[in-house]
Amino acid sequence: MKVLVAYDGSSTSRYALEHSLPMLQAQQAELLLLTVVPEMELMVLPPGGEMHPPWSTGAAQDLEQQLQETGPRILEEAAQMVETVGLRYKTQAMFGSPRLSICHVAESEKIDLIVMGSRGLGPVKRLLLGSVSDYVVHHAHCSVFISRPSAE
User: Are 102 and 4 in contact (CB under 8 A)?
Assistant: First the structure.
């Protein structure tokens, strides 16, 4: 069984991975630990007034470098959790829309199951911001396991 674990370093993604590890271990699943760093949607307006993508400036390139370093650091924690139970895994960090990227990678890698956490957005925030887990449930080609920590 091939399983994509969407991991962003949040407490909810950490809980989802911890909560699913016994099930994944019983299946001897092969994991793909994926983190998606959202692309900056900024445009830089120089004095001339013409729009340019943010990566055309030196400061923005520094920011992009920082973001590229963020993905592997986030995945290091997830990898350590997986190593404790002895499952095979690989990691992937990428830029993009988390909701679209998770679905795309799952399909291209022929994933059987997606594991992810839920932030538990209220109905208004979900309407305004959108829910990554809601999108994935409705658009992924495979089953989706969503884990939500109990309210404390």
Answer: yes
Cα–Cα dist 22/27, whole Å:
9
Domains of the chain: 7-38+56-147 (3.40.50.620)
Q: If you search the block for the tokens 């692309």, which residue do you land on?
A: 39
Query: pLDDT of 48-92, one tens digit each?
Result: 555 445 545 565 566 566 657 788 888 999 999 999 999 999 999
The pTM assigned to this predicted structure is 0.79
Phi and psi torsions of 105, nearest 5°:
-65, -40
b/e map 46-78, b = 16+ CB within 10 Å? eeeeeeeebeeeeebeeebeeeeeebeebbeeb
Q: What is the pLDDT of residue 72?
A: 83
CA dist 20 and 22 (Å) reads 6
The pLDDT of residue 44 = 45
Question: Where are the strands (E) in the chain, listed by range?
Answer: 2-6, 30-37, 88-95, 113-117, 143-147
